[in-house]
Amino acid sequence: MQQAPTAAWRWLWNGLGWLWVALGAAGAFLPVLPTTPFLLLASGCFMRGSPRIANWLHAHPTFGPILTDWYQKRAISRKVKRRATVMIVASFSFSIYIVGAMWLKALLITCLIVLLCWFLRLPETESVAGSAENS
């Protein structure tokens, strides 16, 4: 039988959750920070600290669909995947451009290739909103 968390644990989980939400929101605008992993972390923290806030996050018009796709389908939308791919390539390209050491450039290129190979293989959700079935 699982016990309810104490007030101190709830504060900790909720504090971490808000930290991850802030980083995820910043990641929507900054190329270096990924949004989805931070939102997944926030969701997990809020599920332990405040189910009410977790429900709010999952119902949020911007963040909710990303979380729902991942939890229900273990997939991301084509739009999110395309945007993330552009940001990954842009941020790695900038990093490769500004570092001076060739070994570091090679390491960054290797990381970029590995990351893209993994990321591009993630399943995509299929949008049915614009399909003929819904007309």
Automatic annotation (TrEMBL):
A single GO cellular-component term on record: plasma membrane
Top-level taxonomic group: Bacteria
Keyword Oxidoreductase: no
Main location: membrane
Record keywords: Cell inner membrane, Cell membrane, Membrane, Transmembrane, Transmembrane helix
Pfam families in UniProt: DUF454 (PF04304)
Cited InterPro entries: DUF454
Localization per Swiss-Prot or TrEMBL: Cell inner membrane
Entry's transmembrane regions: 18-42, 106-122
Bilayer disposition of the protein: Multi-pass membrane protein
Protein name: Inner membrane protein
